[in-house]
Amino acid sequence: MTTIKDIAKVAGVSVTTVSRALNGYSDVNEATRKKIMDVAKELNYSPNTLARSLVMNKSKTIGLLVSGLNEGAVKDNFTFEVLSGVNQYVSDSDYDLILFSTNSTKQREKTYSQLCKERRVDGAIIQGIRTDDPYLQEVVESNIPCVLIDIPIETETVGYVTTNNRQGAQKAVDHLIRLGHQNIAMINGHEFAVVSQERLKGYQDALKVANIEFNPDWVVNGDFNEEAAEKVALKLIESNPEISAIFCASDLMALGVMKVARRLNIRIPEQLSIVGYDDILLASYVSPPLTTVAQNKFQMGYEAAKMLIHTLEGKDEPHVKTLDTDLKIRETTKKFNKN
Amino acid sequence: MTTIKDIAKVAGVSVTTVSRALNGYSDVNEATRKKIMDVAKELNYSPNTLARSLVMNKSKTIGLLVSGLNEGAVKDNFTFEVLSGVNQYVSDSDYDLILFSTNSTKQREKTYSQLCKERRVDGAIIQGIRTDDPYLQEVVESNIPCVLIDIPIETETVGYVTTNNRQGAQKAVDHLIRLGHQNIAMINGHEFAVVSQERLKGYQDALKVANIEFNPDWVVNGDFNEEAAEKVALKLIESNPEISAIFCASDLMALGVMKVARRLNIRIPEQLSIVGYDDILLASYVSPPLTTVAQNKFQMGYEAAKMLIHTLEGKDEPHVKTLDTDLKIRETTKKFNKN
DNA sequence: GTGAAAGCGCTAACAA
DNA sequence: TTGTTAGCGCTTTCAC
Questions:
Q1: Domain named HTH lacI-type: which ranges (chains A, B) (predicted)?
Q2: Which CATH number fits domain B61-163+297-324: 1.10.1660.10, 3.90.190.10, 3.40.50.2300, 3.40.720.10?
Q3: Contact B54 A59 (CB under 8 A)
């Protein structure tokens, strides 16, 4: 592997000059530069970013901490879409992306900030971790610039991008109310997700506006998980036959509810209306197609990367970005009809 | 950021000793080691992998070159599943993954091997690039160990994992033949994918066994693309009404064909049988559920990572891994019925 | 069992 | 415009 030293020798100059020439500094004679460039090409030179990073004290890498990068996440490819968005922005910059997957056993050995510090990443994007994750706090308090997805923490070095979850949920429930539903249950994620808290508020907002009393027994957690949602939905439906609509905090859970309904011979949407959240790919393909609150996951990733890199480049940008959601009315919701 | 120098100072030893202690060498006094460990913890030390990599001349990173990491790839999340598999294996090793996305404009500026060399990756996994990619050859010829996915090149430092495409295709077509179909068309990908070449052979194999003459006009390319497949399928079906079954080299293309059939009021599977390839998530969700040849994309990634890391660790492993496919018979195929 | 010193490939004062 | 020198944080001979 050729180094600038080799080039210097062949070109008959010092390494400094080589370095300057290669990095496009102006204070180098054009003839010298050309010579150096030629030699570099001839020797098939590649700069060693490791050495450069070491001395410059920045690595031009950004760490992507994700937790949903596993086999089970295929159905709900939230993580993938965010990753695509991140990648889209990053690949047009001169940064590279290093992946820290935290679903493995390794996460217990090393904290997020350790991973970042060891690799000397310039910044990090964090997605899919729970608010009760013991290492979240730590990475936020380290002075590594980071952008969180769906976790509203804002400091000097920390920003976040999220969507308007409260409003999104409200739209969904409002839609059900307009269809005449009064007995609307909610299957939420879990308490350690800010989005769950927000979506619950949106649900309550909508009820309030319509003067419908909030019944806490009708809100249960399905852990953002299809099977768990099935279980809680089953119990909910069986013990509260008056429920005519269910708002789910994720599409995956909505799919679980649809399964249960099918099993119980409850027709959707005639007997039960369902609204999901996310607009995953499957939402428009299941039968009947799922009414849901769409969030642009790709854009979330894109904006996160943009925010982070802008911060790293010293551009003084807002540290918060909230995207809008979009209610997609499909075929799992219908006018209430009391049989 | 604390360095071993800081630790040495506080612990009252030399940097050499610190290095040895931290790296678990045996020739260091237990008391000294303990002291050093304590100081390291106290100072919240993180090793600088950049410096280490520089001197050791290996980075403990593996590069992942993919081309399908963009918004459009959501439906056909082949890339994502492979990535998950890679990640699964890698995250249980002490390597990290660095993502080189090549769909961007950047790919034209820097070749794959340049990317790899600059970042000093120890090895690379390459997925989703075409055999006519000008930079493929280059990276293969560089002496960077790499594992290719679905490109059968084998050298001292290059291996690959793939599935048995020929057999998979044969199974699919054989299935159609057993159902009584004689006029079976194929929508292939493109000529710069080895899998397309192989699947075509499998198609021909099946015909041959059944003594059905091969008609080259009935094999058209859809570029692994839903829209393109729609177009070619339309032409194919309209000008050859005798075709009763179509084998597609990807599920995405099969979806395109299904769309066309719907538009032409051709009932599936009654009037037209369709077999796809891949078994993407949607395959089992579309209506009717798609009969297809399943390949385990997650495992492909997993095996690729395993092969690469084993190679890097000097384990002498076979450089080729061929996985089996699995014909999933669902509801787009039916006994031929000449009306 | 420990330390001094060299060096990995690069950048950046400072001097000439 | 160019070169000398030091140093980024680490590992590794080699000597003690």
A1: 2-56
A2: 3.40.50.2300
A3: no
Angstrom distances, CA of residue B39 to CA of A113, A156, B17: 19, 30, 13
CA-based nearest distance B49→chain A, Å: 6
Query: What average pLDDT does the segment A257-278 reach?
Result: 97
| B212 pLDDT more than 90 | yes
- Per-residue pLDDT for B106 more than 70? no
CATH number for the domain running over B165-295? 3.40.50.2300
Q: d(Cα B307, Cα B310) in Å, to the nearest integer?
A: 5
Domain ranges of chain B: 1-41, 61-163+297-324, 165-295
Query: In this model, does residue A108 exceed pLDDT 70?
Result: no
Q: CA B194 to CA B189: how far, in whole Å?
A: 10
| Long-range CB contacts (within 8 A, 24+) of B117-120 | B117/A1, B117/A46, B117/B142, B117/B144, B118/A46, B118/A47, B118/A48, B118/A49, B119/A49, B119/A50, B119/A96, B119/B59, B119/B61, B119/B63, B120/A48, B120/A49, B120/A50, B120/B53, B120/B57, B120/B58, B120/B59, B120/B61
Angle at B130 between CA A68 and CA B110, to 5 degrees: 80
Which nt sits closest to B15, CA to C1'? C3
Which chain B residue shows the shortest CA-CA distance from A115?
A: B46
Among B53, B70, B88, whose Cβ lies nearest the Cβ of A70?
Answer: B88
| Matching residue, tokens 């610190």 | B18
Please give the Cα distance from A284 to A321 (Å, whole number).
27
Chain B positions touching A97 (Cβ under 8 A) are 98-99, 101
Assess whether pLDDT exceeds 80 at residue B105.
no
Cβ proximity of A120 and B132 under 8 Å: no
Whether the domain at A61-163+297-324 and the domain at A165-295 fall into the same CATH topology? yes
Query: Which residue is nearest nucleotide C5, judged by alpha carbon to C1' distance?
Result: B16
Distance A121 CA to D8 C1' (A): 16
- Average pLDDT on B26-55 reads 96
CATH of domain A1-41: 1.10.260.40
